[in-house]
Structure formats: C-alpha cells, structure tokens
Write a structure and sequence with these properties.
Belongs to the extended synaptotagmin family. One of its GO terms (biological process) is lipid transport. It is a single chain. With about 1050 residues, the protein is α+β, with helices and mostly antiparallel strands. Strands 8, 13, 16, 17, 18, 21, 24 and 25 form an eight-stranded antiparallel β-sheet that branches. It has a six-stranded antiparallel β-sheet with strand order 46-45-53-52-49-50, with no helix packed on it. α3 (about 115-150) crosses α5 (about 245-255). The longest helix has about 70 residues, at about 15-80. The radius of gyration is 46 Å and the shape is elongated.
Length: about 1050
C-alpha cells in the first residue's frame, strides 16, 4: 500500500526494484511513440530543405572558383604588362611563363584566320567604286583580249555589268556574242588567294593614311558561275576559252610585281614608288635538265609508245618564261637561265610546269613549287626537285639569290664573273634600273597641231614617253591635251653592263610620229651618284627652251653574296663553285724564303682570241608590213653576237633582206666545254624589235679547226642564212712577227669595226711585299687595279696584311704594242699604296716576250715590290687572205726577191718642169740585200690587195725613201692616187702632207668599192708630190705605175 501512488500518494523508495519495474511499463508505451513521431517529422522537413542547401553550396563553390580565376587572370595580366613581348612570344611558341595559354588575358589570342572586320567595313564603303573599276577592267582590258583570241569572238562584248550596292550581293555580269546570237551571264564569282593590304604613307591629316596598296603575293584562283552557257559553248573557238584568260587580266593588275594603288589623298607624289617599289632581290634560276619524264606521244591508238617533246614554263607571279622544246627526249637538257624580280620573302614562290608539245593541246608532265624564302636563306640552292603529278620525274634547278646593292664596291667583280658565264636565252644581268617617270613641263605644241591652228588653235598634244635601254623599249600611258603631263609611271630594266649602257627617252605625241623632246642619260652617271640615284629635273633636247622632265632613276647592283663562291678572273663554269680554301696559318720561327718567280697555274697563258667576221645574210624574212599586211615591206636587220659572256651588236642595215655588215669582233676565250658562238638576228623597230632567227657554232669546233667559214641556216624562222668566218688566233711569242701582224690588220680592218688587236697581254699577279702600314701600325687591306687603254680590272681584297697574296690572272687585248703600257696601282680603301707603269716595248725586247720578276713600285718605300708574270703573245692570222711577208736573208733568195711586180718611176729633174726623164727599172722587194746605190732614184712602199669579204680594192701607202739628193729644198711630200682609166674625182685619193722630210712615213689606207673582175682591169698610178701652198696644186716629184691585171690581188704583200 505504501508503494502504490494511488494509495495515499506516498512516494516509493528508490532502492526497491519491484516498484521500478512496474513504473517502466506504463511509461515506455506512449513516450517512445511521440519521440519517433517527432524525429520523423523533423527528417521530412530536412529532406525538403536539402535541395536548397545543395544549391547554396553549388553557388558558393562557383563564386569561389570565379574569384580565384579572376585573381589568376589579373596576376597573368600583370606579368604580360611587365614583359608583354616575352610573355606572348613564349605562349605562341608553346612555352609558358608558369601558366598555360588559357591564363593569358582574353584579348590575347592567336587565331589562324582573322576576320578583319575593319577591312570589311572599308570594302563596304569602297564597293561602289570597286564596281566602277571592274566595269572598266572588263570592258577595256578583258573584252579586247577575248576578241583578239579567236576570229569567232570578234563580236564578244560585256552587255551588262552590275556589281550591286553591297559587297557580293545582287551582282550580275552579262556577256553577248552578237554574231551567233548567244548570251550568257555571271551569277557568282569567287577569288581565292592571299591578299596583302598595305596602308602607307602615314600623313599628319585625315585620313591619316595617304594610299591603300593591294596585291596578291601568289597567283590566286578564280571560280566563275556562268549562266546560259548551253548555247554559248556551241560557238566555235569558245569551247577552248577558260577562266585563265580572265585571270591573266586580273593578275596583270593585282599579282606581284603588279600592285593596285588606291590614293586616298589628292596629289600623291609617291604614287609611282608605291606602285613599283625597289625589289627585295633578284633570283637567277638555271633550268638545267629533267629526268624520267612520262611518255605522252602514243601511236596506233597507244599500241606503240613514243616519247615526249618537253618544254618548261617557269613562273613567278606574272613573270613567265618558256623554255625551248626538246624533241623526243625523256631526259631533256635545257641549260637556260632566267631572272626574276622578287618583292615578298617569304611568300612569293617559283613554279615550274613541264609540258609535252603537241600540235593540238599540250600534255601536262608535272610541276614543282618552291618558296623563295629557302633560296634567300641558302643564297645558292642546287637540287633535283620531284615533280608533282609527274610520276618518277625530276627537274634539276640551280637558284641564286642576288642582293641589291646601293654602291659600286662589287660591280667590277660582278662584271668579271658575268663575262665567264655563257647563258641562254639572255646574258646575265649585272644591275637593275628602276625609272620613276613623274611629270614634264612646257612641252612644245607639235607640228601637227600648228598646221591645224586655223581650225583648233587651242589644241594641245597628247604626250607619252618611250624609254629604251639597249633593245628593250617601254611606253608610258598617254596624258591627253596638255603640255605639262603627269604620268606617275614606273619602269624596270635589267642591265648587262651599266658602265657602257645608256637610257634613251623620247617624249612623243600619241600618234608616235611627232617627237616633242628627247633625252639620253649615260648610266655611268649613276655610278658616281649618291645611293646610285638621280632624282631631278632633266632638260629635254630637240624641244622647247623650257621643256624639261622630272624623273627619279635608281640603279642597284646584283651581287651574289654566297661565302662559298669566289669571283675570280677565270672562274669555273656555271653549275660549279670555286671553293675558297682557308689558309692554314701556323706559327713558325723560320719564315719560308721569298719566291723569285711567279707561280701561275698550268692554264695561264693558254687563252686564245676568237676573231669573228660577221659578213652578210641572205633571204631574211620581211617584218615591216604596211596597211595591215596588204603591202609587204622589208626588214632593218641587225645581229647580236654572244661569246664567253661578251655581247656585240652590229649596225642596222635599212630595208634590206640581204644585208652586208662586214664587221669584226674579238673575244678572249678559254677552252671551257659547252661554250657556243651565238648569233641572234632582229629587225629594228620603233617599239619592240622583231625576231629574224638565230644560229650558233660550238666554240670547240673553232678551237680545233682554227678556222670556220660557213653559211649558217637560221633557226626558228622560215628562211634565211648567215655568212660568218671565225678564226682562232693562238698567241705567238716572237717579236719578228709584229710588222706582219700590223700590216695584215691594216688590210683586213673594216671601217665599221674597232681597231683590230695585234697582241694578247696576259698578267699573273702573284703577291706583294712590304706594303706601307695604314695609320702608322695597322696593316692595310690591299687590292690591285690594272688597266690598259681604258680597260681595267681589279683583284680581290687581301684582308689586313702588308704581304698580300692574290694569285689572279688577267688578259688584255693590245692594239699597238709599241705605244701602249700596263698601268698598275695597289690601293687600300681608295688610298694608293704604290703604282707601276710598264711600257709594252720592254716586253718586245725581252726573251720570249715574257717578264717574270719582282717590280719596284713607285711612290712607295724602296722595299715595296710586287711579283708578277707578264707575257705578250702576237696574234698572227693564217687565214686572212693576205700573203705572209717575212724577212728573207741570203743570196739564195735574192733572185726570187727580184721577181717583183714591175713598176715605173718617173722623176722630175730640178728646175725643168717640162722635161721628164723616164727611168724604167725593176724595183726589188724590201727584203732584198741591195745597197742604196742599187736604187738611186727613190722608192715607194705600198701594198695593193683585194678584200674578197668586203668586196673592196685596198691600197696602203706606207712610206717613201731615198729621194734625189739634187733637191735644193727639203720637200713637203704627199702621195696622190688615181685609179685608171677613170680620172674622175671619185677614184682619186691622197695622203696627208709630211713636212720637211726625205723619208716620209704615211701608213694610210684607201679603199675603192669594186668587184674583183673590175679591179683586175684597172691600173693604179701613185704620184709623189711636193705641197707648195694651200691654194695651188702640188709640184710633181715622181710617180709609180702599177698594172693590176699583172698582180694577184687576192694575196696582198707590201712592196718597195
């Protein structure tokens, strides 16, 4: 009862167990259920809040990541701002500065293609003007080219050209061929290529940029979507018309070296320089050979396989050259050279395509491409290049990068090197000339307009300019109705020898007939100008008193800056390189003894002289036609002769299809295989000279046979042949032959040729010793300049030494050995260290015509000397048609000597002009041993000879001697010649007067244009007279009478 709470409410003791058990049962039932219910309700509420919690966590993590990313970007931006160039370069090359490329700022990116939105905006504004330009281009340039391509397309026109108001939107181009009632249109046109846009020059005013220059570095591709072509392609001749013709016209404006210039400001004076800047360099491409070409010629429907007739097309942008065709050869050899102007490197590339020549359509044999960046880096690149789409075919090319130099320090080396190259189809260039034609002022009104002053007195000329260098002529655009035109044109010319060439400039009216002024500039002026540039006004000749023209003329020297190439006097043939072997300079106490003789190589002195006689031509083709070819004219032929790097040009024969030149040229040659004597014939025209044919002779044939006399058929033309004689003159080392050589040269000398050479001077420069120091103690860098009669050469420069070794050889053609000398100067940067003048008469008296020793230099210390070998070889012609004349001694030859031609000598005695005592005697040759008493009346030394090649009778009056001693006064003699029976003034000749002498020397030559048959019917009388006064005739002293029918005129010989 005590423990029950219901009984009196007393508490139960805590220590009893039974009552505790009774209390737990009723408490565990309802309390546990409530707790579980509460926990379940709370869990359900938490489940509802879980997404909200997760979203909050995600937002926090995202915020924290973005914050860290911004902090890293800011740190990266700080690094970029600290060293922007290094950071961007390192990232672009895949090298980081502790962070990846993504860590760079957002504005730093390296896209492969840039959208160039700014250019799109410019194009949108310029598009209407571009449409006007395209309309002019299609109508004035492309349409005439298409009409001229085929007779069936003479009515081809662009009937509608609409480029739309927006870029490439609603454009339409329609074409029409009226003859065949066919029309077509252009629905779409795309041009694919790399376009370069240059904004220059920068100016201080709006629009900041003076001009916009655009060009394609490489030839782009053109896709045209034609419409209405079903009927158009049925027109005869149009089926062969492709997009290439249109692309060629576009390339002539937009592909290097052509540029499209859009001036943004008026009066832009730099327009010509922007349109045609100075090139980056010149690449000389040697197309040598190809191998393993595919056979394209099939016979009997492919059953029999033939070969191919390959030729090559060498292209750099719009500069295109085509090689000759090699018939039926799968391994052709061209050995041709071409020169290309290069502006953008890297970027521009060389493309060589090979084709098989066929009567209809040429077959493709393969192509190769090469970026000029590789050539500029290598300087000289010679390889076999595989041909794409050509199977196993390969092509052998040699490419040389020639730097453009603005000074003349290397010009002599370049000219010397080029002389040794025998290249086809043109000789190598030594320089490039760029002419910027700006404007002219106060040109005269042409005679044509003066004659029409009654009708249009205010009419002014339409001036244009023709510029010519050698045989290349360029023309400027025409500026209408002005005497002060502005052309803003630029022209380029390649120069073979800038020291000897000129540029001829003629300002003409548009009809090309009236000359408004002319100007000739010797290009040697540029060699002495600053930066090889003339930028000035030039006074016009044959024009008004104030007529002048403004031009900028720039020359650049082409120099092959290849360290492995050594430019020598006689370098190796093309395709091989002279390697400079560096001297192994060691240290030794005992210096080697100084040599006493020069040590030339085995080839020294082995050169020969080739004498080229350009005689005549026959059956040349007529190129001058009139009235559209209805009236056939003739031609004005001239010849270009090339051998051993030297080029000659004959005079022009007007209107003659069978011209006679009778000119002689001389070239020093070495026996290098592969050289040829080349003759190219042209018809001289006002603009471009027409080709009349070519022919050639291998040099080895002339060297082996010593003499060639042939009629050579002309190649690449329908008719014509050329008559030439070539003689090899090896040097003869005997002074006794000199008189004979001079006589023969005087006989065969032609009026239109230079004086013939009588000897070859060979000089080998070995070394020098004890040259003076520069500025006290610094050793000089010497070189040697040698010259004979204005012809000069230079050695290489020996760097910083007072004892230089050159080991170089030079050759000079000598006209008169007894009157010429070798001039030598040792120089250092323009300062003369010593000089030497060696008269060639010292060689004439030396044994073997050779001097090999140390020579003391003038204007130097006594110990300053130079070691060289100098030898003189006489050029004795064995095939000149002149009888050899030798001195014969002894009585055995006296009888034959006395069998000379019989002459009659008439002597007038003193004081009696009427009485003439006739003395007849047989005059001996000069080589007889008769004493003076055997010929008491005097003698006349003369030569009579008929030159078959020139078709002329020649008489040379050499001298007179041993006059009568009865003369009271010493006479002033001269010789008068007359060719009988004709005594007219036409046949009379006379020498100059020699003052106060009994033994006058004349050495004068006279010619008569006669046939050999007519000359043999004549008689020659030579009167020796005394000149009394200027107004009176000479007083006769004596005469010589020669019957030409009794002489062999084809064998000339000097006689007394």
């Amino acid at each position: 009862m005590e423990g029950s709470p219901g009984e009196g409410g007393r508490p139960v003791p805590a220590g009893s167990g039974a009552p505790r058990a009774r209390l737990s049962a009723p408490a565990g039932g309802p309390g546990s259920a409530e707790a579980l219910a509460a926990l379940g309700a709370m869990g359900r509420r938490l489940l509802w809040l879980l997404p909200v919690y997760l979203a909050g966590v995600a937002l926090y993590l995202g915020w924290r990541g973005r914050r860290r990313s911004k902090e890293q970007s800011l740190r990266a931006a700080g690094l970029v701002l600290g060293d922007e160039e290094a950071a961007v370069s390192a990232t672009a090359l895949g090298r980081s500065l502790g962070q990846s490329q993504s860590q760079l700022p957002a504005w730093v990116s390296f896209p492969d293609v840039e959208k160039a939105e700014w250019l799109n905006k410019i194009l949108a504004q310029a598009w209407p003007f571009f449409g006007q330009y395209m309309e002019k281009l299609l109508v004035e340039n492309i349409a005439p080219s298409i009409r001229a391509s085929n007779t069936h397309l003479q009515t081809f026109t662009f009937s509608k050209i609409d480029m739309g108001e927006k870029v490439m939107v609603n454009k339409k181009i329609d074409v029409e061929v009226k003859k065949f009632f066919c029309k077509a249109g252009v629905k779409g046109m795309q041009l694919h290529g790399m376009l370069r846009v240059i904004l220059e020059p920068l100016i201080g005013n709006v629009p900041i940029v003076g001009a916009l220059t655009m060009f394609f570095i490489r030839r782009p591709t053109l896709d045209i979507n034609w419409t209405g072509m079903t009927n158009l392609l049925d027109i005869p001749g149009l089926s062969s018309l492709s997009d290439t013709m249109i692309m060629d016209s576009i390339a002539s404006f937009l592909v290097l070296p052509n540029r499209l210039l859009i001036p943004l400001v008026p009066d832009l004076h730099e327009a010509a320089q922007l349109r045609s800047p100075i090139p980056r360099g010149i690449v000389r491409v040697y197309l040598m050979e190809a191998k393993d070409l595919q056979s394209k010629d099939k016979y009997i429907k492919g059953m029999i396989e033939g070969k191919s007739d390959p030729y090559a097309v060498v292209r750099v942008g719009t500069q295109v050259f085509t090689s000759k065709v090699i018939d039926e050869n799968l391994n052709p050899k061209w050995n041709e050279m071409y020169e290309f102007i290069v502006h953008e490197v890297p970027g521009q590339e060389l493309e060589v395509e090979l084709f098989d020549k066929d009567p209809d359509q040429d077959d493709f044999l393969g192509r190769m491409k090469l970026d000029f960046g590789e050539v500029m880096q290598a300087r000289v690149l010679e390889e076999w290049f595989p041909l794409q789409d050509g199977g196993r075919a390969r092509v052998h090319l040699r490419l040389e990068w020639h730097t453009l130099m603005s000074d003349t320090s290397k010009l002599d080396q370049v000219l010397q090197w080029n002389k040794t190259l025998s290249t086809k189809p043109e000789p190598p260039s030594a320089a490039i000339l760029v002419v910027y034609l700006d404007r002219a002022q106060e040109l005269p009104v042409s005679q044509y307009f003066l004659s029409l002053q009654l009708k249009k007195s205010s009419k002014e000329p339409n001036p244009m300019v023709q510029l010519s260098v050698h045989d290349v002529t360029r023309e400027s655009k025409v500026v209408y109705n002005t005497v002060s035109p502005i052309w803003d044109d630029a022209f380029r010319f390649f120069l073979q020898d800038p020291t000897a060439e000129d540029i001829d400039i003629q300002v003409k009216d548009d009809n090309r007939q009236t000359t408004l002024g002319s100007l000739t500039i010797h290009l040697s002026r540029l060699l002495n100008a600053d930066d090889l540039t003339l930028d000035q006004w030039f006074q016009l000749e044959n024009s008004g008193p104030n007529s002048r023209i403004y031009m900028k003329v720039v020359m650049r020297i082409l120099y092959l800056d290849a360290p492995e190439v050594c430019i020598k006097t006689r370098p190796c043939p093309p395709g091989q390189l002279d390697v400079i072997e560096s001297a192994n300079l060691g240290s030794s106490v005992d210096q080697p003894p100084r040599p006493t003789k020069a040590s030339p190589d085995a080839e020294f002195g082995t050169e020969s002289v080739i004498r080229i006689h350009l005689l005549e031509a026959e059956n040349l083709i007529a190129k001058d036609n009139f009235m559209g070819g209805m009236i056939k004219g003739k031609s004005d032929p001239y010849v270009k002769v090339r051998l051993g790097g030297q080029k000659f040009r004959s005079r022009v024969i007007k209107e003659d299809l069978n011209p006679r030149w009778s000119e002689i040229y001389e070239v020093v040659v070495s026996d290098i295989p592969g050289q040829e004597v080349e003759f190219d014939l042209y018809d001289k025209d006002v603009d471009k000279d027409d080709f009349l044919g070519r022919c050639k002779i291998p040099l080895r044939q002339v060297l082996s046979s010593k003499f060639v006399d042939e009629w050579l058929p002309l190649e690449d033309v329908k008719s014509g042949r050329l008559h030439v004689k070539l003689e090899c003159l090896p040097p003869t080392y005997s002074a006794a032959e000199l008189e004979q050589v001079l006589i023969v040269n005087s006989l065969i000398q032609t009026p239109k040729s230079e004086e013939l050479s009588s000897a070859l001077l060979s000089v080998f420069l070995d070394r020098a010793a004890d040259l003076p120091m520069r500025k006290g103690s610094k050793p000089p860098s010497p070189f040697v300049s040698l010259s004979v009669r204005g012809i000069s050469y230079k050695t290489k420069v020996s760097s910083q030494t007072a004892d230089p070794v050159w080991d170089e050889a030079f050759s000079f053609l000598i006209k008169k050995p007894h009157a010429e000398s070798l001039e030598l100067q040792v120089k250092d940067d323009g300062h003369v260290l010593g000089s030497l003048s060696l008269p060639l008469t010292q060689l004439l008296v030396a044994e073997g015509l050779v001097l090999d020793q140390w020579f003391q230099l003038n204007n130097a210390s006594p110990t300053t000397q130079i070691l060289m070998r100098v030898q003189l070889g006489l050029l004795v012609s064995q095939h000149s048609g002149v009888e050899a004349f030798h001195a014969v001694m002894g009585e055995d030859n006296e009888e034959s000597s006395l069998k000379g031609s019989e002459t009659e000598l008439y002597i007038q005695e003193d004081g009696d002009s009427r009485s003439m005592q006739e003395l007849r005697q047989r005059m001996p040759h000069a080589n007889s041993n008769l004493e003076l008493s055997d010929s008491p009346l005097g003698q006349l030394h003369l030569t009579v000879w008929y030159n078959i090649d020139a078709r002329k009778l020649i008489a040379i009056i050499h001298a007179c001697r041993y006059w009568l001693e009865k003369q009271n006064d010493i006479p002033d003699p001269y010789v008068s010649l007359i060719l009988l029976p004709d005594k007219s003034r036409v046949t009379k000749r006379k020498t100059a007067v020699r003052k106060k002498t009994l033994n006058p020397e004349f050495n004068e030559k006279f010619e008569w244009d006669l046939t050999l048959e007519e000359a043999q019917r004549r008689k020659l009388e030579a009167y020796i007279k005394n000149s009394i006064s200027f107004m009176s005739r000479g007083e006769p002293i004596g005469k010589v009478h020669i019957d030409l029918s009794q002489k062999d005129l084809t064998q000339g010989a000097a006689q007394w």
